[in-house]
Write a structure and sequence with these properties.
- With about 190 residues, this protein is mainly alpha-helical.
- The protein has one domain.
- It has six helices and two strands; from the N terminus they run ββαααααα.
- Strands 1-2 form a two-stranded antiparallel ribbon.
- A hairpin with a 6-residue loop joins β1 and β2.
- The chain starts with a strand and ends with a helix.
């Protein structure tokens, strides 16, 4: 007996260790949870086997890609993304996860994704410090960055919808504007 992730060939054999020692219900639940938590990393490993190709800054976000096509852009550019090319390995970007890093690598490669992660960590730290200082704008942005970090093993959550993307950009702008005003007042 096996349980698989979607229609993929990624399956857990419930007759083998560690599942064999569990009841059928417990083994199925444990395999489902493991698959749920690990599937993004499998998508990342598939993407890591492919050579990144430029996607002009819109490969990290399905809504941006759809907007580009709806405004008359060439749809064939989507064939260039790592996450789209994972379909060759029966890992669809429409139904399976491929981590935030695979989505970022669509635009700036895996080295760029590492640099982005460092910048995200810097932003997370700065917003936390500003939140402790009483900046409510920073508190909202901190929560958004925290959500991005929480969902990183699955996808680039806040850029997966127009609402999430707009919220992130709005609060990043509001926090940056408030920070620059606070710095200007402190120096005068």
């Amino acid at each position: 007996m096996a349980t698989c992730i979607g229609y993929s060939r990624i399956c857990a054999d419930l007759t083998k260790t560690p599942y064999a020692a569990m009841s059928d219900d417990m083994a199925f639940g444990a395999a489902a949870i493991t698959g749920y938590l690990a599937q993004g990393y499998y998508g990342l490993s598939l993407a890591g086997e492919k050579t990144p190709m430029p996607t002009f800054g819109i490969g990290h976000s399905p809504p941006l890609a759809a907007l580009y096509v709806n405004l008359g852009g060439d749809e064939s550019w989507a064939n260039r993304t790592l996450t789209y090319r994972n379909r060759i390995d029966a890992w669809s970007d429409e139904t399976q996860w491929s981590t935030m890093w695979a989505w970022i690598a669509n635009d700036i490669g895996f080295t760029g994704a590492l640099i982005f992660t460092i910048a995200l960590g810097w932003l997370w730290g700065k917003t936390w410090i500003d939140t402790l200082a009483g900046d409510l704008r920073a508190a909202v942005l901190f929560c958004l960055v925290m959500m991005t970090i929480f969902y990183a093993p699955a996808n680039f959550q806040l850029t997966s919808t127009f609402e999430g993307y707009a919220t992130l950009l709005w609060w990043l702008g509001v926090w940056t504007w408030g920070r620059s005003r606070r710095t200007a007042y402190a120096s005068s």
